[in-house]
Amino acid sequence: MKDREDEYRETLTGLNLRISELEGELFRGRNNLEYNPDATPEERAELESRASDLEREIAELRSENERLSGELLEEKRLVVASAEEAARVVAQLERIRNSEDGERRVLTERIAELEREMEGLRRNGGGGRGGPSDGSEARREAEEARARHEEEASRLSARIVELEGRLEGVESDDEERSKLLREADRLASRILELEDSIDERDRLLETSTKAADILLDSMEEQ
Prior knowledge:
There is one protein chain. Helices cover about 90% and strands about 0% of the residues. The protein has one domain. About 15% of the residues are buried. The model is unreliable at about 125-130 (pLDDT under 50). It starts with a helix and ends with a helix. Helix 2 runs antiparallel to helix 3 and helix 3 (about 130-170) runs antiparallel to helix 4. By secondary structure, it is mainly α.
């Protein structure tokens, strides 16, 4: 941003100098018209034409000056907005990562608990509605839950690392800042998808809990 700002300021300085030069020339031309009674009609017409040209050029330069000043202010605003958006996205990613770690621990503990209960049921020989078929079904659900969780956890972790890596160079150049502005909206949508995935794992945990309840009922009936 500093190089871009220096470029803008250098251009603006050059414009201001040129405007000052033209205004000086216009002032001298007006003086010649006013204080040179000996000027011929042709000379006066030429001075008038030149004065009009100078006024038009000065107006164009001032317009360009205002445009560049506006662009410089907009560049600064975008940089600030990009930095704020990057900070917001990083904070959201951190919250999701923490939630993911907590969810991983809960599911891991729950699956281990289910496996212990199923192992106990097998040692007791099964029986009732908690027979081998129910034990196999519960184990299958637990294994599927573990596989889905591990796959999703791996994907989420890789995606978070990728996003954070892209955010590290947010202020490296103008092109990256422009990309971030476009990426911000996509990140917000992606974060919602990640949160939906966490909700799905919550439903998975609920299914595991129901399977555990079935096993406990079977053990009690024995």
